[in-house]
What we know:
By secondary structure, the protein is α/β, with parallel strands linked by helices. It folds into 2 domains: about 25-110 and about 215-260, 3-Layer(aba) Sandwich (D-Maltodextrin-Binding Protein, domain 2); about 115-210, Periplasmic binding protein-like II (D-Maltodextrin-Binding Protein, domain 2), CATH 3.40.190. The chain contains 10 helices and 13 strands. It has helices spanning about 1-25, 25-30, 55-65, 75-85, 100-105, 150-155, 165-175, 185-195, 230-240, 245-260, and strands at about 30-35, 40, 45, 50, 70-75, 90-95, 105, 110-120, 135-140, 160-165, 180-185, 200-205, 210-220. The strands form 2 sheets. Strands 1, 5, 6, 7, 8, 9, 10, 11, 12 and 13 form a 10-stranded mixed sheet that branches. It has a 3-stranded antiparallel sheet with strand order 2-3-4. A hairpin with a 2-residue loop joins β3 (about 45) and β4. α3 (about 55-65) crosses α9 (about 230-240). It is globular and about 55 Å long. The relative contact order is 0.19.
Amino acid sequence: MQGHCKVILWAFMLCVLLGVVAVLPESQAQALTIYVDEANPPFMYRANERAAGIYPDIVRAISARAGLNVKIVPVPWRRALFHLDNGDGAVAGIYKNLERQKKYAFSEPIHREGLMIYRLKGEFDRETKIEDLSGMNVGVIRGWSYGDAFDNARTSGLFETSEAAGDDQNFAMLVNNRVDAVIAVREAGDIWIKKLELDDQIVRALSPIYENQTFIAINRTSKDIATLSLINRAIAELIEDGTIETVISNAVNQAIGLGFH
């Protein structure tokens, strides 16, 4: 009788343990893959086969605060969006627009990027607005959305665009007179100009044509969408205690001295 009771007790304990395993959040059972651009310093880039920059570092801070198991993978931006479309991971450092909101759920903002106009010094004429690009050929990064206002102006034919893999290629086209202007985020554009030693050739507007908030996005059909509540709670805490601001400053300083490619 005593042995029979022990068997029942062990069976009961096993059921309890299995039940605990069954209700563990999936975010703790396997890693959430978050893709970032491999060639957009200082925001996100590949360094020594590892994701580096502002957004990977913010994601690491978020995952540590939220207790999430996260794998950050640097890939070409179009491939990152391909994974996002297929629902097999999230993307960090992405802009929100109306079309994307139909397909993706977005976190709270993780940063605000100022889009700047860059032109050759001899050609610059105080351009600070999207309308100032009228009739120009503008260098942009392939596969990027620059927000609804810029995208709509582009679609309407206000200006033409030439696409490149990164800001460095766009600035090379600018100094070779293959484009009339380049649109780049301030931190990235300024760093590339220093790295490429183009300070004496290129000037940027003093104010942005637009400021884009950036987010972490997950496909609305993804099994990982439930992690957004944990991510948002961590973002709020990291903003409140100043951690995100420190992460951004450190990432920019690291990119300046890194000599990225």
